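I hope you will forgive my troubling you with a question about protein structure. You will find the record immediately after this paragraph.
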Amino acid sequence: MCAAALEEFCGSVFWNASFVEREDPDLPVCVEQTVLVWIPLGFLWLSAPWNLMPLCRRSQVNTKHRTKLYLCKQLVVFLLFLTAVGGLIVTLVEDFGPNSSAEKNSAVFYTNPVLFAVTWILVLLCQEGVRRKERAVDSSTLFFFWFLLVLCDVFPFQTLLREALRQGEVRDIPRFSLFYISFGLELIALVLSAVADIPPEAEELVKKNPEAGAAFLSRITFNWFNSMVVKGHKTPLVQEDLWELNETDSTAYISQRFNQHMRYELGLARIRFQKKLKNKLLKDPSKAVEEASQSNGLGKGVSQDVLMMEEKGKKEEEKKKKNEKKKEETNYPNAWLVTTLYKTFKGILIESAFFKLLQDLLAFVSPQLLKLMISFIQNKSSYAWVGYLYAVLLLVVALLQSLLLQQYFQRCFVLGMKVRTALMAAVYKKALVMSNDNRKESTVGETVNLMSADAQRFNDVTNFIHLLWSCPLQIIVSIVFLWMELGPSTLAGLGVMVLMVPINGLLANQARKFQIENMKFKDKRLKIMNEMLNGIKILKLFAWEPSFRTQVEDIRGEELKVMRKFAYLSSVSTFIFSCAPALVSLATFAVFVGVSSDNILTAEKAFTSISLFNILRFPLAMLPMLIASIVQTAVSKKRLEKFLGGDDLDSDIVRHDPSFNSAVSISNGSFSWEKDSEPLLKNVSLDIKPGRLVAVVGAVGSGKSSLMSALLGEMHSTKGFINIQGSLAFVPQQAWIQNATLRDNILFGSPFEDRRFQDVVEACALGPDLKLLSAGDLTEIGEKGINLSGGQKQRVSLARAAYSQADIFLLDDPLSAVDSHVGKHLFDKVIGPNGLLKNKTRILVTHGVSFLPYVDEVVVLVNGQVSEIGSYQSLRASKGAFSEFLDEYAKEQSNQTTHEKDGYQDTEDVELIPDREDTQPDCPPEDAVSFTLKRENSIRRSQRGTRSSFRLRKNSTLKPAEDTGETKKGQRLIEKETMETGQVKFSVYLQYLRAMGWGYTFWIFLIYFIQNIAFIGQNLWLSDWTNDAAEYYNQTYPSSMRDTRVGVFGALGVAQGLFVFLGTLLLANASVNASRILHSRLLNNILRVPMLFFDTTPIGRVVNRFAKDIFTVDETIPQSFRSWILCLLGVLGTLFVICLATPFFTIIIIPLAVIYFFVQRFYVATSRQLRRLDSVSRSPIYSHFGETVSGLSVIRAYNHQERFLKHNEVTVDENLKSVYPWIVSNRWLAIRLEFLGNLVVFFSALFAVISRDSIDSGLVGLSISYALNVTQTLNWLVRMTSELETNIVAVERVSEYSELENEAPWVTQHRPPEKWPEAGRLQFLDYKVRYRPELDLVLKGITCDIASTEKIGIVGRTGAGKSSLTNCLFRIIEAAEGRILIDDVDISTIGLHDLRNNLTIIPQDPVLFSGSLRMNLDPFNKFSDEEIWKVLELSHLKDYVAGLQEGLQHEVAEGGENLRWADS
């Protein structure tokens, strides 16, 4: 019915099969005039509203410039409009003109020109709409329209041409000309629509971010990224080369949207939680109360002074708490995080789901096309064009699949990145407003972990979240198609696959146990390594290196044992995984041919099923992994919900009511650290007038610091209130210093005013310190103020307050960390009645009795209550608590002054050490171990007063030019990294292979190669098997033949698995070998490098070699190496099979290989550098966060939360600038490689069609099904090459530290006498020493003679060389000239251990190692217990040690933390 109407409409036949069933097929003219016209026009009419919307909006119309490109586009469409009008005119003239005939034109000649004319007007409007659209540079819908139009017009194009050629003339010249003119114009329009139309006002933006100016084609192929790749290939990228982020990817934008949804969802969750508590209360009142109290803190009051004592009991408590937690249900608002994330990012989620769905469905088209292709090859009578059509369709489907897949991945990875960003920003924001109850529940390390590990988990899961529905979908569709091919025997193969899942699960479980055990040993080894490196000086002085080396080697041995077990286990799972495809196909085909003799395996059936099984493998392998990672993420979700759902600090505790006439007033206030605990400060009433200086005094633990915290609003108010007028500045007891320049630390966000700054620096006695710094006040201060002494930190902290120009100053004992004379200076110049702050309100907590006469008022605290207030004189006279306090402190003061004369001065004004060691650029953030080590290290360093490090750095200021260059912050970080830019040298690979052993290496390659041959053999056997179908056509298939076929097929499959198993086992042994050799070389060498190395290298950097790099050598490299070999052989095997089937293909291989090589080289250079930049820019996020958490009270006091939030956003954005291009670089690579793979498919199909007469269908099936798989393998090969190259850097770094220059040998041939030194006579002869060849002498020609049994004191000011002298005795530093003789033996001629074992020293700072107390005293087990007790008695420690539960076996905690400072 429909066809008849169309035939009347066209005036010709609509459809006739004879048109296509011939050698040169064509479409009927009527189809070309109707269907092929309506398809593109219909698409445009449907999508037009989207482009017309901007025209309806009432905005400033002509804000955007009309570019030349826009005018050209409009001109082309206008010309097309004229051709449509021309077409109508021609028809009218023919029908109604002077020469018109009786036979009228059919309706189509009227409707089509009118349709086109209206369409062109619509296109003109659409293009204007696109121009007005905000930030649009082109329109994808218009591009599609032009593309469809040109595609559909190709058919009439060739029909008209062929018609004209066949008849030798053109019948209808006007229409013929109009069609070709309009076709040319359409082509021009297509080209123009593919070019981005960037208005002049957007050019700046596009320079900073090329993506903003990328046209549709460039966006789907990621062409806009080319410039970055080219740049990365020419020179290693640096942070400055990275582009600006899109606004929607920036932290500020993401976090603002996330917070909006989070507020709403969290509110609902809190209501739900309250309801739950109410219901519980009705059922069981006691339990609910207990739970409510648990939900906010530990449920007991702890003052800061008492916290330290709590440390020991904490661990047992934690264990109990863990057990309780298992029993109790969640006691915080839960189940809101996932919905918040969904609501924030649902747009991108839905988009990516749409792409994934299309891609999944397209994946099943290829096997069907393969089936058609094979039947085409078998049927020699079919026309050649059918084969070419199938080849082109294979290419088109593959291309579409690639484009969709890459768009899906791009969106998923960007989604992952955004989720991580949102969570990081939320955790940071929460940390700034978190109440103290919550702060107690999570340590700094735990909160940093929330930001790094937990946010990263969410990132990883969201990358693959769609597989939750996509895997089951793929599995169901595959089974349906397989059932259509092979009927019920599909179930056999499926059964084998399903069986694999629990086996894999069991193996994974076992592997996890090994992993946990392995981590235990790793932690243990790193703990010892960290202690050794922190106490390396002690090890050298006492010659204890061998003892500690054996300890580490023993643990390493255990670790390698577990690693070997793990490797064997993973080789079993590899065996199962590699056997799986062979077993699955074997089971299916065996059952299929075994069930009935009518079932004959044809090429179509066999290869279609194999393609489908290949599709099935992916979802079955991914599902268990995805479920495991979702389970892990559930843990992270709980942790994040608990942290983010906790209570905020109550902002109403401190009022700011201007009607009060005092600066600070507390009326009858009681304050506690936790909501429901006993108040620490009771019934406090204070009234402080503006401009007064008030001292707060009291015994330790009387609540002075708590009073400060209460004024800052950090405590819970149980009754009463606080009113404060004006802004606050706060100097905490422990100075908080940022990792920034000294100037930034003082300015703290205020604008720089030179005069004011100089005044503050002078007043705070920082002038002399600044002179010693290489870059003055622009010197970078390390983390936690690592390169400042305690006194300097405190002065910087005071300077920060003084510079801030606040109204009220809270000074929490700022003078305790400085010398008495410096304290006096600070009091006079800053705090006191004549100081910088004389007109401000100051509240000073102090123990310094000498300052009290000069203050306006003294507040005396006893047990958290104000006992007296008044002036110094009046309180002194009243003989109350205050005079007791004075007497008590007078005693202590007199003891202290004697102390000060000895040693305090020596460590106090130690000049600032310009710390130019970047805070660990090479420390990857994921590595929590190095993070904590870095922390501890910085604490140790700040305690370390060794003159050696100080002297060295002081003298390094002789090279100011270099230094100032180096202190520039950003530049420095990346300069440090440049040693690892560019390609990794081939010698590094050889070094690793040598460590594995050449024999192993040879056999591994050989066995993997044989496995690949077995794989190819099996498939060739299958293709031969399928030819039986033609041979035994209409005959019964002999069962013996069938059994042979199945048997050989199975045997080859199992052989493959066995070879993989063997290869993996060998590789496991070889890699454990390599790990052992590389680690012991590194360890041996590090213990032998001179002390100078440790003074100039941050310990974290050395630990990092033992942590991150050894981890890479142990675990990552062997895996990358194995995958790389398998991928490489897989690709070579595929190309071999295709060439075997269609020898023509060899011609194509060379150009493809060249393109492949270039793409890969370009990609690897850029990707590797982006990865490094990611690592480098990630560290500042965590260190800034750690810093913020530790300085919370200061940040809140100054009210700088907003500034820190902004700073965090900037830091995260800097990191995203390298993460985003890295994501794009992977897509850029994947799409190019997939195009190459698609070409392989296309050519293998094309050559099969060309040589179809000389080829059998089995081989075609084999070569095309191989080719369909090659895209993935190619992609993996580049990934693996790049990964291997990135990881092999670890070997380079480990070997760099294995080849450092060593100190003198430990034992030489020239050994001292057995009982040396007997007399102990010591002679220095013209002894000169310098720390480094390029530095000045430290000891300048010392000559002295010390007789036996003399006691000698060495004195001198800071930096005079006292410690250097003792260092020289132990040859920590070697002589430049001169000698030291001990009992007439020149110490430079004997081995270091012979020397150091026979001298002893009590070092400046005590260093203890974790282990038993006995091990700390006698690491080599040389002495008996009696001797050790005797020594303890002499050092007055016998009673203390005897009082410990385990006596000598008492376990010393890391750094001796569970012993008192005086005892250590």
